[in-house]
Amino acid sequence: AELISKKVKFIGYKPRIAMADLGKKGKWYRVVVDGFDTKEKAQKAAKNISNKIKGTNCIIQGNASIQKAAR
C-alpha cells in the first residue's frame, strides 16, 4: 500500500492509507483518494490512476472517494 500511495502522490493526488480487517482474509491496506466534488470527477481520477499505475483496480464509493486495495 505504501508503494502504491507514493505512486498516486507522484501523479498529483493526495492519498491516505486505511486498514480494513477482512476476518479470515486478513488485514488489507487500502490507498484512498477522496475529496472529489462529483462522482464524475472521481471516475475520471480513477481512470487516470488505473492507466498510470498498472495492475490496480479502483473502486468509487458513494462519498466520491477512490480506493485501491493492497495486501
Topology:
Elements: H1 2-10, E1 15-21, E2 27-33, H2 39-52, E3 58-60, E4 66-70
Architecture overview:
- With 71 residues, the protein is of the alpha+beta class.
- It contains 2 helices and 4 strands, in the order αββαββ.
- The protein has helices spanning 2-10, 39-52, and strands spanning 15-21, 27-33, 58-60, 66-70.
- The chain has a 4-stranded antiparallel beta sheet.
- The termini are close together.
- The model has no long low-confidence stretch (mean pLDDT 87).
Query: Percent helix among the residues?
Result: 25-40%
**N- and C-termini, Cα separation:** 7 Å
Radius of gyration: 12 Å
* Number of helices, counting only DSSP H or I runs of 4 residues or more: 2
Percentage beta strand = 25-35%
Order of SSEs: HEEHEE
The biggest sheet amounts to:
4 strands, antiparallel
**What are the segments in which pLDDT stays under 50 over at least 5 consecutive residues?**
none
**Extended strand count:** 4
Given helix and strand content, the structural type is alpha+beta
Strand order of the largest sheet: 1-2-4-3
- Please tell me what the overall shape is: globular
Mean pLDDT: 87
Tags for this model:
four-stranded antiparallel β-sheet, alpha+beta, 71 residues
Q: What's the gist of this structure?
A:
This protein has helices at 2-10, 39-52, and strands at residues 15-21, 27-33, 58-60, 66-70.
